Amino acid sequence: MTMSIDIESAWQELRERVRKCTKCGLCETRHNTVFGEGPVNSRCVIIGEAPGEDEDLSGRPFVGRAGQLLTNILEKGGGIPRDSVYIMNVVKCRPPKNRNPKIDEIRACNEHLEAQLALLHPDIIVPMGNVATQALLAGSSGGISSMRGKWIDRRGVKIFPMFHPSFLLRTEHNKSENGPKYLTWQDVQELKAALDKLQ
What we know:
This protein is α/β, with parallel strands linked by helices. The chain has 8 helices and 5 strands; from the N terminus they run H-E-H-H-E-H-E-H-H-E-E-H-H. A 5-stranded mixed β-sheet has the order 2-1-3-5-4.
């Protein structure tokens, strides 16, 4: 399954618009915008918060340590090939020193995010971490710890928040039965089951 010519043209136009974007100050310090990658017909889209240093230099999402862990979570934990999902970020440019994106930066990039989602038309969206979850579910109460592993409807699309891989790296010493690593293993198994039902 491939995109129609009209949608493919719109996709390329959107990619170019993101590449040239100067809507916020992040454009002044970036090396590359990070548009996203994966099959455009994927039923599942994974969304992080913003590119880090490795992503900024390569122009690809989730390629550093957190990206390697994401691949392991998907493939070893859930049996989900990384190249079967579309992966992108809420903000397309790296915030300095990998800080969290500011509200105005998220708002500036929201038009791009919504345009991507409209063209991708996924069945399931997996926001990774608190920033991505709050960006998608604006106005929702509770942080990622209370929202992860829950199915939430957003305009007819299933949202399934999970912990961000960088958080798991920061808490990798916590190997308790209810620790973030264990909960993420449970979550990716549930994601795999939901994807299997779509086929």
